[in-house]
Amino acid sequence: MEFFDFANTVIDRRDGTERLSVAVTPRFPFAGGYKEITIEAKHRFRADKIADQEYGDEKLTWVIDLFNNFSHGFKEYEVGRKIKVPTIKTLREMGIL
Known about the structure:
Layout: E1 9-11, E2 18-20, E3 34-38, H1 47-55, H2 61-67, E4 82-86, H3 88-93
Antiparallel strand pairs: 1-2, 3-4
Helix pairs in contact: 1-2
């Protein structure tokens, strides 16, 4: 599942074109369901590599960004920074995987 799978399609009344609305992202559980990792040099600015390592799908970077309240994308992934990564079990329970 990708980030925009959470957006609804709306039809523009003026010209009948379809557009995506704002995505309503899933709510993650507050307690547990994640592991904490420290960003290594090989993953600096590479959220896609972390998502691939953890989930086998580099497109799930949005999950890690959302879970950690990141708003600046790859700039957030500095060496030594501790981040929380939702477990595969959590993503399955939420219907993301």
